[in-house]
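Re: duplicated header lines in exported structure tokens

Our pipeline writes sequence and tokens for each protein into one text file. With two proteins the header for the second block appears twice in some exports. Here is an export where it did not happen, for reference. First protein block:
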Amino acid sequence: MTACTPARTNRTARTGLPGRALRAAARPRFRRPHSPPPEGGGRRFPVAGADVSASIAVFLIALPLSLGIALATGAPLQAGLVAAAVGGLVAGRLGGSPLQVSGPAAGLTLVTAELIQKYGWRTTCAITVLAGLAQLALSALRVARSALVVSPAIVHGMVAGIGTTIALAQLHVVLGGTPQSSAVDNVRGLPAQLADLHTAAVSVSAVTVLVLLAWPRLPGRVGRGLRKLPAALAAVALATLLALAAGIGVPRVDLPSWSSHALPGLPEGPVLGIAVGVLTITLVTSVQSLLSAVAVDKLVAARKDTTVHVPRADLNRELAGQGAANIVSGALGGLPVAGVAVRSVANVSAGAVSRHSTMLHGAWVVLAALVLVPVLDLIPLPALAALVMVIGIQMVSITHIRSVTRHREVLVYAVTVSGVVLIGILEGVALGIVAASGVAMHRLTRTRITRETSDGAERIKVRGQLTFLAVPRLSRTLHQIPQGASVVVELDGSFMDHAAYETLQDWQTSHIVRGGQVEVTGRAGVRIAEPGAGAHACCRPWTPWRNHHCGEHPAAEPKRHMKSQQLANGLSSFQRNTAPLVREELARLAREGQRPSQLFLTCADSRLVTSMITASGPGDLFTVRNVGNLVPLPGAESGDDSVAAAIEYAVEVLRVQSITVCGHSDCGAMQTLLNLDPDAPQTPLRRWLRHGTASLERMKSTHRTWARLSGGPSGDSTGRLPADAAEQLCLTNVVQQLEHLKAHEAVARRLADGTLELHGMYFHVGEAQAYLLSGPEPSGLALSETGASETGVSETELSETGLPGTDLSAGSPREGGERALFHWVAPTAPAPSERLPAGRSSTGQSAAEPDGAQPVGAEPVGAEPVGAEPVGAEPVGAEPVGADRDGAQPVDPEPVGADSVSRAAPARPSPKEGAPA
């Protein structure tokens, strides 16, 4: 084990529950709700209204698209409806992305059309079933995440190539002709088709295209109302009405009887060709579905409404759901199924909150296929062809082209597009992978190293990746630097291998020894870690409390020597790394004296780092720590006035604005208090813990309701009971010690004046989450008279808890007591000015000063995985996702109700407000 591996801790050995209590703790005594309770006593209809409206919007888009894609592939038109229904019902129920909508995808049109042309429709259905089985196998191997390794340039190129091929094929149908078997043949036949236009087909197609493009841009109030109807449905409907009203003679949809619907048969054809078809469908459907699921997660995270919790996509489950849907769709004579970006975006935009919307959309498709056949038979085929052609054109996304251009991957994109259009999908993707590998190798080997001299200072600029291939040039340039010169090495690259690192490190050490100066910076001039510092890669400002020594290997040293050097090593690290950053601030505090804004009373547990939890700095907190975060009552027989003296000094002399009592999970003092034997010999620890007996009695009292942990991403407002008796005592102890605080004369006087606030706080060590008890009263302690029924705890639950020393028999409910509800508050995203070295702000202040900065390195909530964008066609007129894609929204600081308790993010307090977390 290396020095940077933190020590393991056996948490199960510290429960401290004896015999009966331990057995009782093993039973599921507390019921933890997983979702917010239904309002108004529950609803009879289990589907949310938002899901119903969203399902209708998705259905109106899916119906014409399914028919158009079936027409473009040459499959029976019912096959598109079957795939849409199965995608909604099967993939919607079994998939891992709740809001993703599956069905026949435009990206599969080219593959399916080629298979139908080669092997016929029945064999194509069998290939779809086999592809579904392959997807189930891949899901069992849990390789779904590996699909995201493919370069976005290759994915975008594949989609653009498919879209180009679709558009060229459907253009012939729009002009009144018949598409050819390949994109090259369609291009060659286009002049002849233009010379032989069919006016009827062109007029219907033109109306469809014009409505598709103009519908999202309708002006005025009436336009806003009409835009609620999907553009695809409006375009097909208006084109149908025009054809009927004008009596235009064009081919129309012909849905034969379901009794003659073609089902799959045994695969007929060469085994190798069928295997390639299975592989192609598996690859395209899987990659498109998984990338679309990632994109749906981004859209959900960008929502303004944070009260509805939608689980993130489980990609392996999503792959299994797509496999099951393809098996069912192929067995019922449907097209291959994949996650579709157009319908998924519409589903999220319409406000869907669960997978019920996707499943309902499938049910509406089934109903339409059975009831609306006479209406569907009126749709002109040129209108569907125009719809699919526009979708194909939109698959060649200008946004994607700009993205690959910005990342210098145009060559990969162009090779993939050309390969898909001219050869085939698998061949095009393979060529794209080869091109991407070549570009990566070229970047690794192409490194520019230049040397400049200005005002007696040397500047070495390294452009590109610094690998062993560039070491000879780097070494030659470095050794040309005169001894004693001041040198700046500017690295403009994202990678440096071990050989280059050692070369740079050895030269820097040698140059500094000979009287020179070396500074290593990035391209923007920001100083980065110096290779010669000898710091281990895992070193961070918090390593001292991770029980290891940065850059050292204590296991290889004698144990006695390791212990004797631990303090010296820590002090040396502080002087080297931290002192330069805080020296100016500490000097100011030394001149002006301490002016803390709050008294922070917490446990002596070594895992509680108060400055980290509250994101505070020097001079912010007046901290008092003791075993169990206890506050003895005034005049209590203890022989120890240290806590009372600290309270008096903080309140009367330092004039703090708030006092916080902070408990924590897995508290050894509370576990000892639970198992305290009154007949055991008295020790200093047992005498001290007598100040916590009031908390134990408060928890055992049948006339007081228990504290609850509430809120969270799911929006649970009723909360849950603590996990065990020890956690319940930790929470109760916080509330009881706040009562003890109010008994101190200095505290009571300041509370009466309204110049002091009390706060209760609970820190869960294992979850690294802080819960803050706050309220509108000046005391800061929000208590309300309520019965046990209001908290949702039944008498049966109370009688089955089995807490040590608690006699909860039937007929003794917890009535008339106070309720402490711990409510969750979402963290806010850090401002750009907060991403600075620890302890410093953009204005030169320390992190303790009231500028509102959060701890360095805080990451925004809702950060998404690999930055994949939706695959397939984008919806016409889709609104762009806002800049707040991470989903982190400011949270209303006002408490929820009179007894709300906030789960605090690690935001730095403001001394003027006195909020510790």
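Second protein block, exported in the same file:
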Amino acid sequence: MTTAATAATAATTATTATTATTATTASAATAPAADSRALGLAHYAARGVLEHVLARHGVTFRQQVALRAAVTAEAPQTADDLVAQVRRSLKADPAGLRATLAELLDKQLLVADGAHLRPTDAGRELIAAVGAETAPISARIWGGIPAEDLAAAGRVLALVTGRADAELAALTA
């Protein structure tokens, strides 16, 4: 390669790098600020994906959350335990959550064992199947986001969740 060609290549590389840096800076500068609306849009976009998968399995989002709580519990849970756990996650009314548990019992995804509700093999298989179907989608959604961005987002979301939980507790006290 001649000296002129090398200089031209270097100039092109420098221009490309500057353009890429400018584009990254510009996109970061024009990115919307994190707020309740942005959080809600992200939540509902991701939930829409999950609900699409759940519909193919004949279960609702609320049923999946309750069933997952039973499947992932370290010990058998009573209905009251599951209602309390799911209520902390979904902020849903206890009567509606009890109806959700009844639906899971009717679908034979949970079974009563004395005072405890246990997931059936079908319930465990359903949670595993949904996880297997959503894993590649989640990888596409979350892939390529730098670890430091995910850590920062995690810290902010934990803070917002704690503050919102405190405000809800004050409103319902």
